[in-house]
Request: fold
Amino acid sequence: MTWTLSTSLDDFREQAGEFLAARSAENTVLLTIAHRLAEAGLDVFGERPPVFGWWQAEPGGPIEGAFLQTPPFAPRLSAMPQTAAAELAVRLAEAGAEFTEVAGVSGGADAVRAFGEAWTAATGTEQSVRVSERLYRLGELTDPPRPPAGRHRLAGPADRELAIRWHQEFLLEVKIQPHDVARSVDDRIASGGLHLWEDAGTPVALAGSSPVLAGMSRIGPVYTPAERRGRGYASAVTAAASAHVLGLGAEEVLLYTDLSNPTSNSIYQQIGYRPVEDCLVLDFQAR
Reply:
């Protein structure tokens, strides 16, 4: 059983691309990050170069697991056996900070737990759960049960400053370190991946959508300013963004929710989303 570690995006996509596409729902984050690195450059998430890896149960066998990391963010695990996740933790601990610094990990809950146990054992650190998430897949899209007033439209250049501010507010709420938010917003506007819900001509909610990759698109972030919440805008803009990517040919439409937020988990199920798997984000700290 072996992990191959790499700093080459091209090698990662060549070796692990077919495996990631075959399970595009569970591997949605890796697919979209790898695509964005290829489109926008290796520095799009931070100054330090990204790192990659893929796992084979035996040399020359099929790829059965993969990871990528875009520092300063934690490694993201693909769908993989728990044994592969534990082996990866040991390999990264052995490789040390010269290869990459690991302050946490994210992915499917079982793989993340296995990684976390092996990492803390190998490094003498402690772990804590930053967030518990649930991945949802759209079944049959339905209208929100209480549709709000207003309409959907794609964001344009005139919405740039508003979209940047709302992205920053969203990242602050979910405690994610922002990096070059303006660049991300510009890319989404240019690609038609930023959606607004307007009420009486005023934007009241926002949703992003990823490009359709391997038949999959993921909705997120979804954000409504605090003073506009409770009126159904998030449901409406999510349903509209979902319909939009279905029209672009997406066969699977996905989104993540924070399990500590019962409202979001409820409203997305009301418009047709169904659970796929639970995920975790862990942080590691010195004892």
About this structure: The longest helix spans residues 109-123. The two ends are 31 Å apart (CA to CA). The mean pLDDT is 96.
